[in-house]
Amino acid sequence: VLLPAGIKVITYDADSQQDARSFFVNQATAQAIGEQLMDTAATLTGSEGEFAIITGSLTSSNMNEWIKHIKERQAKYPNMKLVDIKPCDDQKDKAQQEATNLLSAYPNLKAFVSVTSLGVPGAAEAVKQAGKIGKVKVVGLGLPSENKAYVKEGVTQAVILWKVEDLGYLAVMAGAAAAKGELVPGAKEFNAGKLGKMQVEGDNIVLGKPFVFTKENIDNFDF
After folding, report:
1. β-strand partners of 158
2. Which residues contact 158 (CB under 8 A, 6 or more apart)?
3. Most exposed of 17, 58, 130, 171 (fewest Cβ within 10 Å)?
4. Percent helix, strand and coil across the chain, each to the nearest 5
């Protein structure tokens, strides 16, 4: 796609309409995010027990897509049961209240899985206040900075996102390659510098699998 001035357009993180750009640099596919969340929850719980999902809004298209893939991946873990999905309107306080209510409603709950960033510290605070650190696992999508204290305390076991530095770097490399004519429609891969050869799927360049931040590595990141 060329603008009147002959400028090539690359989007990243959040896409535009397809006809407004040449390529989209995607941090991770919805399937990869959903599967990583479910696999991590299963690892933490020994692949059994009840878990609940905290979402931002019941009408959020991207969060519903992630939840869809969590449910599909759940088939791999027949001893795990999704008991409820609660929205928190992307507010930590509401997430904490919803998580507290879920802990009361489901005394055997083994994990919270949050698909919204503020749901992770909200659920963590609920688990902490309930005195269930370690007994109820907390995992979700979020920023290391918002969750570092809970991770260090052992309240939250895993925060999942992607390396934002790598996403920005990949977007710049894709833009440079497109400008030089090295990344053209129909390409299957291109050279992304320190990230190596990156695969191009149609008009999407996918950074890769989501990254899992844990107590062991979270101090290495400052975003």
Report:
1. 139
2. 40, 44, 139, 212, 213, 214
3. 17
4. 40, 25, 35
